[in-house]
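Quarterly update from the structural biology core.
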Amino acid sequence: MGYIQFDKKQLINLEYVLNKEILRTNRAGAYASTTIIGCNTRKYHGLLVCPQPAIDSELHVLLSCIDESIIQHDSEFNLSLHRYPGSWSPKGHKYLVDFDSEPTVALFYQVGGVLLKKEMLFGVDDRILIRYTLLDAHSPTKLRLRPFMAYRQRHNLSKANEFVDRKYSVINGGIKTRMYKGYSYLHFQFSRDAGYVHVPDWYYNFEYPKDLERGYDGHEDLFTPGYFEVDIVKGTPLIISVGTSEMDPKNLSRTFTRELNKRTPRSSYWNCLNNSANQFIVTRDKKTEIIAGYPWFGRWGRDTLISLPGLTLTRDMDLTFKSAIDSLIMDMNGPLLPNVGSGKDAAFNSIDAPLWLFWTLQQYVLMAAASEKNIWDDYGPTMKIVLNGLRNGKVNGIYMKPNGLLYALIPGKALTWMDAIVDGKPVTQRGGLAVEINALWYNAIMFALQLAEKCGDDSFVLNWKAVAEKIPVSFKDTFWSKEKGYLADFVDDDYKDWSVRPNMVFVTSLPFSPVSEKIRQLIIDKIRQELLTPRGLRTLSPIDSKYKGNYEGTIRDRDLAYHQGTVWPWLLSHFVEGFLKIYGKDGVEQVRPLYDNMELTLFEHGVGTISEVYSGDPPHRPGGAISQAWSVSEMMRIKWLIDKYSGES
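Predicted structure, tokenized:
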């Protein structure tokens, strides 16, 4: 049995299983996701969600689900489960007896004397493969498969209409059909002969509870072209391929086995993290991007740069690093990197994304032993554009003050990572001098100077050395309070915000810090007292009157809590790094439980991966995206840090 497993008692408990979701990607932009029992509970669920470049740059849900029925003695037993307003139907989960994740997602159904195994495998070419194996049966058995199609952008919902294309064409081993012109066809092909009955129709009012909880429309109509029937024989697997391209059905068994052998087994905590990490790295059309989270995020600049070091620990770091960073730089606008989107759809509303680029390159040098000369040759021009552009006010509202600190305030915009907007206004705008922005600013200048000095770029050194030298004094005078024992979160003129937030943690973790070790130790102590949880760091101290301890309710409620107490796992790595920089090898056993305890989250929300956020109050329930790049990457980096410091002499 696999590392991740759920038994019959758990699988028939809907309250338990419908909060557990699975995700598989093909590393080329497409994914499949649903709950562990195959019941879709949000519009982002589907068995084939993939790009449709002829339509737009988004992902589209083509195949929502497939209903399976076992037929014996002219009796039909539907194995599926759907939510409709006020009811669950057809309640096929009652036949489930086991769920296993090794070597791929597998569900086991028992109907009388019939024991059926269903395995799902997501292919590299926008294709899902499903293998059915009859493990036991005492009478002739048929399998009926009815596909439900959505054919809509993943953020939208499908509604019944008269424009749907009801035609189909016979192909080798099955049929091909599509709902609308301009879209890809879906090719349904079987490893052996399957009868097809064409009865196109709409099924109405599929209900998605997760979307309703978030305050969105949660009802959808799905289209079915008809159904397939095939005799299923004990010990002889049946494979169905559903993809955007046709393949030779004679190769289905070989293809399934080959794809299965490529997979890293989810047989341990580390292997799950490694598997999950690979799913965020998408290469399509010779371009590498990091998906910030599944199932609704795309590429985010800040998330890409923070995630890259951890995500690439077990890959060819050179290739992935350069490709992902270069794709961001291609969309650069002045000194700013895109916060979200690409090309004409890119948004440049992040002051910290270009500063994280310097940290990411520092990790590249540290982890991959990359040549500092090559880094300066390849990325020195970009670093200069960033530093000079921010220094000289190339973006309205962002400029360097005479004391060397970086000021950023654009009314109505949230420029830091605490960027939630509610009713058109930032929840935590933090305008002016933000503590982590200036920590990143100092680190960026110092790293660039380090490279320039080693590479003999005297003009850059002359231009920036005096700035770097004045920042530590300015930083301390601006943010530090000896009486309070921690740093202000942001400062604007005479106003200092003393909310206890995790943004000051970066002063302890960045390679170059503008404050002393004693101050860093006091910051770590403050964070440990008020912000540290087993799931990450709270975004606001629970003793603050603005604190919101539960991340739940409508999207408005969630956004109001997003950075007002909600826990973010990715911040944990910077706490651990800051802690170990102070305590060294002696601190390893104190931080190791933070890594070990996160293993429990693999079974809570996104199965085998780590969620975007957790509630600030115990028991710290998971929320947000079911699988977040920087949540996964920073757990991997914590493991790397622990191993590094454990090996110190």
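The two ends are 40 Å apart (CA to CA).
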